[in-house]
Sequence to fold (284 residues):
Amino acid sequence: MELQEKIDLIKNNTAVAMLAPTFAIDFKYPNIIGMLRHLGFKEVTELTFGARMVNWAYANYIKENPGQKYFIASPCPTVVASVQHQYPELVQYLMPIVSPMEAMAKVHKKFNPGCKVVFISPCWAKENVEAPKYKEIDAVITLQDLKQIFEQENIKEEDFTEDYYFDSFIREYTKIYPVSGGLASTSHIQKLFKEGEILITDGVENNKKAFEDMKAGTSQYRFFDLLNCDGGCIGGPAINRQDLAIEKRKEIIFEYTHRSSEATMGEHEGKVKDAKDINLSTNF
Fold:
């Protein structure tokens, strides 16, 4: 889908924006909420509630399959593709749970079946690899795309200085999901494994080592929280500020998490019951 087609989709439909928390690296909060509404989005939400639902599904799956040798986290489409194409014998260990992007899209379609769901992403693979698999995702806009759209539409951060709020479904602690280890640290899966059985790593070479050890049956780990980009999704190739060091990006995400949490608690927080009846399973 071309950029103008995406703009038209937003302006001519009841469009919902799902923001990956990595947006804070490129755009000011809460200005971004007002900017997206001005662009034409009827609702602006974060992906955090979808991440909470994925955490919940992960914990349930692990409890239901205590005898499984390995569990490979599957939110990263590049990690999933690497397993499928390079280590097919490990596909059986991929968590058969949708990503936070698809989980959140399912929530939106449940409450507003006619809406158009648009994910705003730091990652090209979300658009090219994962989104085509799911009918609930109507479009993906990268952070680089979004900067271009705002420039084209003459939408400027300094013109949006009110106290904007996301449209419900907030889940504060999962805002750190895009940082390497965010899934493992927010899903409470530590309680389901012995000490030393959870591997948190990122980057192509580190992941390759993990896959090779699994393939050889020599890995000491059972749960693998792996992300393809260095530092996690905060190292995504579609982020505009590629000049920022990973540690600085991580600092921005933690600062944003703290600041936004103060403003969006209470009535703005999504509840688990909102998605209990949604099927979050998938297959690879």
Notes: The chain is about 40% helix and 10% strand. The first helix runs from residue 3 to 11.
